[in-house]
Each structure stands twice: as C-alpha cells, then as structure tokens.
Amino acid sequence: MDDADLKAAFAGPPALHRFPGSMAGRCRELCRHVADAYGGDAGRIWTGASDGEDLLARLVALPGFGKAKARIFIGVIGKRLGAGPKGWEEVAADWPSIADVDSFHKIHELREHKRAMKAAGKGGEVD
After folding, report:
1. Residue ranges of the alpha helices (H) in the chain?
2. pTM of model > 0.85
C-alpha cells in the first residue's frame, strides 16, 4: 500500500489512531521489520525466542517498542496466549498492565490504577 493510502486508512473513518499520519508510518516500519526479520510471521517473534531475555531483546528491537512496552507485551504473550518461552515471567511487566485484563471491568480497574499512579507521580509502571 502506498503512503497516501495507508495514511488515509489510518485517518478513517473510523480513525485508527488520533495521530493517523505518524502512526501509519510507525506501523509501516514495524511491518517492514517483521517481514525482514521474521519472514512476515509475527508469531515467530515469540515462538522462536530461546528464553525470556531473548524475547525481551526481540521485542525491544521492534520499531516503536521500548523496554516498558516490550515487558507488557511479554505479559500478554505469557498470560493471555500461554505462549511465553522459559523465563518469560522474570522479564514481564511487574506492574498492572493490559496483560492482566480478562474482562471489561478489569479495563476500568487498570485505567483507575494508572490514573492514581500518574497522580502520585509514578507514571503507572516501574522500569
């Protein structure tokens, strides 16, 4: 898809992101990385990881993924998909995250926790 069409898709309607232009570019970079490094199979990021540390390194290498986002994603892979490699628990986020959400009610609880952490000046995560 060319850049203009991709940006139009992100702009919607419905909009896929509140900053459609920049997010379209970030999505393109991420897809390019997955295509180049994993043959287009995003699942290989975690199925090919030798352990939790390797998975963390693979995720941090993704465009747009910092360590905090990578640790949250490891929790999703381990807790929600049951697909974490050996040692994923040691590198997963140790703060409440979307990985802990299994119902709409939990989303509300997570948002309230993050608001309280931000108000306390802690940002909602420990890293």
Report:
1. 3-11, 20-38, 44-47, 52-60, 67-75, 88-91, 104-119
2. no
Residues 68 and 124 in one domain: yes
Mean pLDDT, all residues of the chain: 92
Q: What is the pLDDT of residues 10-30, one digit of tens each?
A: 999 999 999 999 999 999 999
Give me the amino acid identity at 34. V
Between CA 59 and CA 30, with CA 34 as vertex, the angle to 5 degrees is 75
Distance between CA atoms of residues 74 and 92, nearest Å:
5
Q: Which of 103, 105, 33, 104 is nearest to 63 (CA)?
A: 33
Q: 16 is in which domain, residue-wise?
A: 1-42
Query: Is the same domain home to 76 and 22?
Result: no
AA identity, residue 35: A
Model pLDDT, residue 117: 85
Q: Report how many domains make up the chain.
A: 2
The one-character DSSP state at 62 is S
